Here is the input.
Amino acid sequence: MRQQHSFSPTLREVPNDAEVVSHQLMLRAGLLRQVASGVYSYLPLGQKVLRKVQEIIREEMNRAGAEELLLPAIHPSELWQESGRWDVYGPELMRLKDRHERDFALGPTHEEVITSLVRDEVKSYKRFPLCVYQIQTKFRDERRPRFGVLRSREFIMKDAYSLHADEASLNEVYQKMYQAYARIFTRCGLNFRAVEADSGAIGGTDTHEFMVLSEVGEDTIAYSDTSDYAANIEKAEVVFTEYEQLLPAEEKPLELVDTPGVKTIDQLTTSLKVDPKQMIKTVAFEVDGELVVVLVRGDYEVNDTKVKALLKAETAELLPEERIVKELGSVPGFLGPHGLDNVKILADHSVKGMKGAVIGANEKDKHYLHAQPERDFTVEDYYDLRNVVEGDPSPDGEGRIKFAEGIEVGHVFKVGTKYSEAMNATFLDENGKEKPMIMGCYGIGVTRLLAAIIEQHHDQDGIIWPETVAPFDIHLITVNPKKEEQRELGEKLYQQLQEQGYDVLFDDRQERPGVKFKDADLMGIPLRITVGKQAQEGIVECKSRKTGDIEEISINNINQFINQRR
Ligand code: ATP
Ligand code: MG
Here is the structure.
């Protein structure tokens, strides 16, 4: 491609609405332009990288025995009503009506569509396992679209679905998909980790997220400093050692004290001079429509994913302030378990056995001192309901927990019979008995992957594409195309390299050399070949974008040189 006529507008300045490096570089290198919040156009350079990534994904999916198909982006509401998700998916689901006022959704994921398709076509166990995938645009009206294509509202996903007659078959395909994912992310040049994740309302089944390690990641990974254990913080189990860290305290009766304007643990610590370990945090949730109060020791955070998992619920939302007043008869900031009647109170293990605790008094500007669970309020039971913290023992018994940030680029999930039961997708087993199909789902955020690659492969001058996904193999530059010997050698090399099968971006623009070199560094094509002053002698300059190494090579040896780099 001749750069003169390539639609790849580069920017010198860092766009001020782009917070993270990958977003900045995608804009600056001319890969991407925003159309609306969380909606982007991919310019030719971006599209080329997307195609490279998609080819790697296709190769590995096909190798793992999956077949490609294409499902619609528009889904009739009936399918989502059948699964029950029309109501629970919430505002993230983009909904629309057709001219007959019928409801539709723009697909955020395709479990419903695939379940209904297979339900209508497959009746016998003999046809299983089936594994299909597509690479397609998805729509999610995210609350906070941000960081460019890392969290957008329209994005490309590879989603695969496997269907099975039994668990053993699901486990086998799950393993294959897991391995295919590891190969895909390795081929994309990524430093990643597969971590245990929360399986949501279905519970009990396996799920892993593939996390690209990066400080801009929105997920926190809890990992052991000595073993292989790694889990999303949402999921990471807390090993409870009974009474391990309780502070000693005398048993005294409850005492009401004035704490004007003191609403947070930090403020309490200062005003009462009490260690947060001596406080109980009370957090009210609405869990699938039911009021639930959760208690955790003051130095910990409640993990709402664990609350959801414990109660096998679809949703757990913090109770809005007005409902704390209306339905709990309390005051936001002063919520406490004493005197809360007719509400389910669950406590984290850390609260068990506490004495002399500070709790909210359900009255404005008041707290109780010397509170004691079971004496001053009832607790339904104690569970693991808090986030792990660094230094906690690793759940596999080896080492201590540390944290790292990660970008979730992929997700493999044993879904089981959630959709087949809801949507009545059954088959006949070898004894002629009707059973619900067993399902696995496997997603990769293709556009997010692009940004994740850049997060891990850049320097202050621009992108450094791994060879496997680079938009071009070679960036050929003629320093001064007005000089005949340079122009001729440039043209000759451009033809020759293309004939040899290389994808070449040819910068024959009438621009200053500095501009061309800056653009080349920004775009990050792995090999730069510069035709300059030594064109007459048949010598060109070859520069590796990755190492910065420069070598002068005679054009007679250029093929050998390029081959050696691979
Ligand atoms: P997240 O927790 O980041 O919102 P998710 O758990 O909702 O992701 P899945 O439903 O598992 O995502 O979707 C599969 C993959 O699609 C994710 O692993 C991620 O890489 C990608 N993805 C999900 N939401 C977005 C988005 N808004 N923008 C870009 N990619 C996304
Ligand atoms: Mg996920």
